[in-house]
Task: structure prediction
Amino acid sequence: MTVLSGKEIAHQIEKKFPKSIIESSPQSLVVDREFLLPVATYLKTTPGLDFDYLTAITAVDFLDYFEVIYQLTSLRRNHSLVVKTRCYGRDNPSLPSVVKLWRGADFQEREIYDLFGITFEGHPNLKRIVLWEGFQGYPLRKDYL
Amino acid sequence: MEVDGLYSSWQLDEAEGEQIEALKARSQQPIPDPDEWLEGELKRNILLTSVDAILDWARRSSMWPVFCFPACCAFEFMTTAASRFDISRFGMEIVRASPRQADLMITAGTLTWKMAPQVKRIYDQMAEPKWVIAMGACAISGGIFASSYSVVPGYNRIIPVDVYVPGCPPRPEALLYGIRALQKKIAKTSLITQG
Result:
């Protein structure tokens, strides 16, 4: 499988959505959260990119912000790309949901919601998946315990 | 996703959460290990000796384990049950999916608080007499997850444990040794002393 360069794809996205890319490297690119849905739609529907498969979503707590990482794959083109986005604030961080684009995001967004406390707007069934109702705190945050 | 009429999935989640919190609140201390069999020797000499002998022989010779394999120790149990180690030598090759037909719970694996009500329910549904072998470090004390937010620190928080088999995971020989130890324990049990 070809691993696409985040820098090259970032240039391609910048032409279509100016100021949407925060930073990019050969390994990945970071998208502004306001542009997450348009960029994701662009990556999925543009011929030549065709990212029709979401391998995984995960999140990292950097204390200043949460970074949510989308690992995209194109089964048709046999290539992959890592897209990241950041959301700020520890009280009520939120991101747009990508479930409408990739159904595989359903459970993983619920898991991130459960363990990091990040709300995904537009998710059809956003509730706890791993822990039980009434559990206090978000265990995968750096400041838990 | 609403279920029409009776309840919503949200109500189910809330009820489950309350159940787990309640179980957690009343499981803060370990349940003492059953020890009536230690004092049984004197009483069994007075009456029911031969009845006891036959019953205990029957009980220890056909122990059927119930399915309770939440984590990786299950693989060691499978090895124990398969032909190389072969627990059918001890009359217990049938692993029952129904707790009603089982006498023994081999708790092979890490137990989370979310799973704890189900395991307690399986134990409660087993018919008396019933025994529990805590297999592996997680079953004994929570193992490396003992201080975790989601793991039960030892099965003896929710059910009484008869035999502890240490190891991470225990070798099949160790599990067989634990089963033999339990059989010796059952041999000392008396009808009168058994609560």
